[in-house]
Amino acid sequence: MPNFSEIGLPEPVLRSLAEAGYVNPTPIQEKAIPVILSGRDLIGAAQTGTGKTAAFALPALARLGPAAGKPRCLVLVPTRELAVQVDENFQKYGKYLGTKTALLYGGVGYGNQTKALQDGVDVVIATPGRLLDLHEQRILDLQSIQITILDEVDRMLDMGFIEDVSRIIRLCPKERQTLLFSATVDERIGKIANWALRDPITVDVRTGKTAAETVDHAIFPVDVFQKYDLLLELLRRSDYKSVIVFTRTKRDADRIAEWIEGHGTPVATLHADRSQSERTQALQGFKQGKYSILVATDIASRGLDISGVTHVINYNVPEHPEDYVHRIGRTGRAATEGEAFTLFSPDELHHLQQIEQLLGRPIERRKCEGFRYFSEPNLTLGGAKTSAPRKRNR
Ligand code: AMP
Fold first, then answer.
1. pLDDT in tens, 339-380
2. How many domains does the chain have?
3. What is the DSSP code (8-state) at residue 241?
4. Which of 204, 231, 262 is the last residue of a domain?
5. What atom of ligand 1 comes closest to residue 23's alpha carbon?
6. How far is residue 208's CA from residue 218's CA, in Å, rounded to a whole number?
7. Where are the alpha helices (DSSP H) in 3-64?
8. Domain coverage including residue 258
9. Is 0.90 surpassed by the pTM of this model?
10. Which amino acids bring their CB within 6 angstroms of ligand 1?
11. Which of 204, 238, 261 is the last residue before a domain boundary?
């Protein structure tokens, strides 16, 4: 395995890597960095947690060289949280190049973002809506962009950003390097790649194993009005260090957070109706271990690099089957053991069947032994195989 200097990264970048304590490149870094350094366009098929941010940030910084005060690299991301993470990466690795970044996302005032742009930046990291706003107001000019990076493109398409993303790509100069990263590469991604990228090289580091195969996950059938109680019971019984409880709606997230806090455990809450500072505080508090429970909508199901999550509990069966995989993928990262439980009421059968169809197999049904069910849970609803409750040695 080559080390970072053998891949061809310049000294100021290597110094920041040494400081970060990175010794060897990850597989996506090993494959993508030389391609990007050579100036070629690239499609990177990789999930978060693989080191993909550094896989594009390091060679992009190397190509940009010392700070020049004009936006020359644009990174487009689906969510504010991911924008913050990418920005942290660029700042860390660009420290000795003096790289300046602007972080542009909605939900906050324009003042700081405008000032950052006016002061001169090298790298712009943005969510699509706010970027277009600032462009329309002529505060941001994309004509000096040399490298356009589209991160988590599948997620951006799922969130309905296709038109915004296309517009933004068109606003970038024709002569540019374009890098596209996505956890899934399907027809939709292929379409964008076809017109936005020029003769790209594809680097695929997906293992073929999804979280659904590496995480211990199970369905807990229960009447809808007993979900709150069963949730508390599962939390009580799980030997969790840190757990994310996913809900379908923002309202559910708030109510469940209140319910759990009412039973004595402080929680962090993350959803789109919370202010940016509340979201940042919630996420930081959870990452730093101040809160061991995060209650969140799907805003947290993708992309975020939160390590050490031992449990995921789905309060509802996710409506979109891919979200199931993304949600349970929050646990069991980087070879840590994870457990994911889903509370399932009979009215959610359709969603559950869609998930099982996507996975190509049934998910195990479990009963929470000793829990006072009002009516006996139906462990065969949906036709899945049942199994005796398992005890895990953790
Ligand atoms: P990402 O896939 O970009 O979200 O990165 C996942 C995590 O791996 C982040 O916390 C990075 O800081 C870390 N990381 C990235 N590259 C390396 C590397 N070569 N060696 C060690 N850690 C890394």
1. 899 999 999 999 999 988 877 788 999 999 999 999 999 888
2. 2
3. S
4. 204
5. 20
6. 21
7. 4-7, 11-20, 27-37, 52-64
8. 211-383
9. no
10. 22, 25-26, 29, 48-54, 305
11. 204
